[in-house]
Structure formats: C-alpha cells, structure tokens
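SAMPLE LOG
Freezer: B-3
Tube label: C17
Construct: single chain, 523 aa
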Amino acid sequence: MEIPSFPYKILILAPFLSGMESSFPDRPLQVNMENPDDIFSQLNPSFYVPLPKELHPAGGVNIRPQKSKDFHPDSLVQTLPFLKTLGEAREFLKEARDKGLAEEEVAAKLANWPELPAEFKYPPAASPKKKDTTSKIDDLLKLVALPEEEKNLTGAYIDVLSSLEWQLQQILKSIFKDQAFRQAEATWLGFKYLSNSMKKNHKGELNIYPISAKNLQENLDHLLPFLITELPSLIILDLPFDNSQVSMENLQKVASLAETLLVPVVCWIKPQFFYLESWSEITRLPFLPHFLEEAAYAKWRQLKRTPAARWLAITCNCFLGRYPYGAENRPKQVYFEESQELWLSPVWAMGILINQSLQKYGWPTRITDWKNIFVENLPLPLREGNKTYPTEVLFSEDRIDQFIRAGIVPLVSMANKDMAFCPRETTIAGGSFAYQLLLTKVTQFILWLKENYGQEIPLAQLGQKLKENLAFFFTRISDLTPQGMEISVAQPKPGKPAEVKIEIEPSRQLLPSGEKIELKLDW
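STRUCTURE (predicted):
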C-alpha cells in the first residue's frame, strides 16, 4: 500500500475583490508559494477610489495592483498615470531649480508636458506681461542689464513646485483614507503575512477565494461542491462579525459549512459584537460569560449549543499591519502624514500560528505554545504612558480567561514586545480547537484509506491494517506518536457495511488538552 504525503491545505476566504470592478473566479485559486504575488494576475483586482475634482480632473483613480507592493504610496505615484505625471513634473522642477535652468526653458518644457493641468503649465505670475513703454530709461536698462538670477527659476515656478508637492500629498491622503482602499490593503497585507510564513513549509498549500459580506451565504453555497471534492485542512475567514441578526445568520451558515466538511474555520469579531466602539472600552463590561447571557445574545447562545459550533474558533483583537505613513514610515516619493492605523484581522495571526506549529512540530495543534509559537517583528507604535504594543489593546489575564470561557480566542500581546500569540484556545462550543484541527487531519487520512483501499482490505484484516497505516501516518509526520490506539470492527449484518470504531489517545505534546479521538464510521 503506497501512502502519499498530504499537504496541509489552508483555504482563505477574504474580501480580495470587495468593492472592486472584477469578476469572481469559479473555484478557489492555488497560490504559487515560490512567488505568492502571481495570484494577482489570476484575480486581476481593480477598484476605484473617488477624489475631489480639484485634486484629480477625472474625479478619481482606478487602482489595479499587480503585486503586494503596489499598495505602497511610492508604487501608486509610479503606476497611476495622473500621479506619475505630477510626480515627473515635480522632479523636473526640482532639477531645474538645482541646475539653475532659465525660466524660458522651464516654461517651454512645461507647456508641452502631456496631461499636465494648465495651472501647472502657465502659472499666473509667470505669464508674459505687456511692456510698459512709459519709461524709455527702464527699457534701456533692461536691455543692457540681465542679471543671472533673472534667468533662473522664478518665484512663480517655485510656487508650482510647492503646488505639485501639495497636490500629490492630498491625493495620497485621500486614497489612504478611503475605506475600500484600506480594506483591500489590509486584506492583501494579511495575505502577504501568511504567505510569507508558509514559504518555509514545503508541505503546506495555500488557496484563496474572494468573498463579500453582502453575498457571504451565496459565496458559501457556490463553494460547497468544490470543497467537498477538494477538502481543505483549515478555512480562514476574514470577515468581521458582530451581534446583529445578519451577522449571526452568516455565522450559522459558516458553522454549517464547517460541520458538513468536518473542517475547522477561524473567524473574528469586532468590538461592535459587545456594542463597543473599540476594545479599549472593554473595561466597562462586567464578567463576559455573564454579559453574554443577556437577551440580546440569544442567537449567539443558540449557536453555541449546536454541534456545528465545535468547528468554529472566534478570535478578536487586530494587530498592526505596518506603521502609519509619516515620520516613522516615510515614503520616498511623497511625504505625507497618514491619519489612521492599518489594522489586520486576527485570523491572519491565527493562520500564522497554526502554520508555525506545523513547521516546528509537524502538527497544527501546538498553537498555544506561546514561547515558541508567535507572530513576530510586528510594528510597535507609541501608546499612552510611553508603552508600545502591536495589537489594538492589551488584555489582562483575567479578561483573557473570561474570553475563553465565553468561547472566544483573544490575540494577545505584551507591552514593548513586537510579538502576538494565543496563550489559550477554544471553540465557540467550549471545546478544544486544537482537537478539531487534529480530528480533521486524522479523519481525512482515514477517509482517503477507505476511498482508495476500502475494497482491497479483507474484513478480517481491516482492524490491523488500519492500525498499521495510522501508526505509519503519525510517525511519518513527526515523533509525536499516540500513546495508545484501539480499533475494532463489528461484523456487518447481511447487506450492511461493517462498523469501524477508532480510538486514539494522543500525547500531551501532540494535543495539550489530552482528549481522545473517537470515531465511528461505516466501511
């Protein structure tokens, strides 16, 4: 019996095309881990950012990123035609100023500059003036006295240079304030974080599919037939949930998909789930499990009681994707001050932690081994009291415990440390999410055995063969083998399949919760 290696398949469902003028693919797209940016050419993202007419004659820009770096302001200045025109004209004026070019040469060059607005070509103070012939003495002096400074760049064109700089700054400020742009950048930056973490994991596979909050249920219905035939190992969903009726209905749909596929899903909630504007307001809430007993959370409690809830991990507390543009993160092309921080959803961090566990231990279950498994090299902006930390807020140990009891996994950071981690984990239902991750991996292997060799193994040898192959499956991955394994096969009744019972006792190193895997299936 030849057993292949099974890549750990992570499926990302995220708004890669949300608000964009692009068509959605029919099925998930596999990422080339040698060059993850190749996925841009498959999706062809394109979206529009409106701008005031006084900043852009067309009233906006079409942005078509071809790689992750295309969201950077330096790239935008180089790739967006109007910004490129302004930038090149600005560079010419800087050169003219530094070289001392004559005003006539500057004027001639700008007058013939394609696509440059007229106010930059013909500044009022530089326009030709009518001669004042009232003073012949003045005319004579002008003919014989031509100081070098009068040939050089005048105040009018210095003003043009300043105006070009100002306009570029204002356009970039407007783009980086636009919510559609910010969401797109955050999604693609999260993708970059995760794909970079997976480059060393040659046994991992990354697939993505664009979704939208508005059409989430339709997106999931469309995906289901494809996912049944190509089962992922883990689904990461980058859409925020709150406690609204629509959100709870969508979350129930996600749970149903996870249960159907027997594949765990990582989602996230924003502060509005608790009717907060930001996580910093969490201090005014009482004990969280008691707070979630209020009538407003009836649908949440109903979901927690369903079997499907065992397949969902809900996380919270975003992490900073990069420093805001400005003094701490200065673009080369145009300096401007960004007014908001760019937060990435905690599901990307959870994906990185799971991938790190795979790389270090062979299994996705050691995500709470926070001294060894953590997201690092995160931006550390200065906070109140001269503290720095990379997440939205620092949770106390007591609050972390309350989140876990409530069925929520907080992303945690420490003051003055550029790292984030999950010291504890759970599912919505309250069980171990690491258990579900392990259960999926083992179940998918058993189903593969059944599909490929189910008819070849004699019933009398089935129990022993399954035990041998499962032992091989575990030892092939790492030395974290089970402490015990029991398999029994019940003789089938006439016309009925045999019933197989499998009990696996993982070591604490493999599964910190110490739970046993118990499976029953027809063979």
